Recover the amino acids of this structure.
């Protein structure tokens, strides 16, 4: 990987497993601090949606790598109105569908897909001159390893499943918990940039905290860093 110039804008990396509350937390932190926001999970979902549309065989990593190269994904970074487009089409609704959720871990495990999307993520970070909150699985460990603030957000499996089931309007939290466990297993054991806590990330367990308490904790971390190193 080529060396990157030193960055002056603030980057807050928020990583963690599905259902840990990353999205609401990262958006609120960005809104509170007047920063941009990037949901990298939405990019992997958008890629999965595009490949499903094309009929790519998703159990064939070579086919995924070949077809992924032509897909153009664009992310809007307003935390209160994030957008995601594939080849100019708004896909913010379809990427939350069950067919995408069931297949996204397969697509995200393909190194060529990660290479393409990580490049796009870094370009977005570099363009956010006023600072950005980036949420995902490998932001602090691989995408922006020099981010001055890194958070690893966790929650108990049952709390995560309850949150996800409520988001989906799905009352079967047990099935949701099994699905989250299956995705965690794939995301954490893949060879390319697995879900992992960066050694210098601050772990926050949100199981018994409100959204506001988690946001307060992250804002305090940001203030510590910006007061120690005002730019
Ligand atoms: O956060 P999410 O559930 O929308 O993420 C969708 C999938 O994308 C999830 O299975 C893990 C993967 N992902 C990833 O591999 N790396 C990221 N930086 C973000 C998400």
């Amino acid at each position: 990987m080529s060396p990157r110039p030193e960055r002056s804008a603030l980057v807050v990396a928020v990583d963690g497993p599905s259902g840990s509350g990353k999205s609401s937390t990262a958006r609120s932190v960005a809104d509170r601090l007047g920063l941009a926001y990037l949901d990298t999970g939405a990019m992997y979902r958008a890629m999965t949606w595009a490949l499903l549309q094309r009929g790519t065989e998703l159990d064939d990593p070579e086919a995924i790598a070949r077809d992924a190269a032509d897909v153009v994904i664009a992310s809007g970074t307003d935390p209160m109105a994030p957008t995601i487009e594939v080849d100019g089409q708004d896909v913010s609704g379809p990427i939350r569908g069950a067919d995408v959720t069931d297949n996204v871990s397969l697509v995200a495990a393909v190194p060529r897909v990660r290479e393409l999307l990580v490049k796009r993520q870094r370009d977005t970070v570099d363009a956010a001159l006023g600072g950005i909150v980036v949420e995902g699985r490998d932001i602090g460990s691989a995408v922006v390893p020099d981010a001055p603030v890194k958070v690893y957000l966790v929650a108990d499996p049952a709390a995560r499943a309850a949150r996800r089931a409520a988001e989906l309007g799905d009352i079967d939290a047990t099935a949701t918990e099994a699905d989250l466990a299956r995705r965690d297993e794939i995301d954490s054991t893949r060879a390319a940039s697995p879900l992992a806590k960066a050694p210098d990330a601050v772990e926050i367990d949100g199981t018994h905290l409100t959204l506001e308490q988690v946001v307060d904790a992250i804002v305090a971390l940001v203030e510590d860093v910006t007061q120690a190193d005002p730019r």
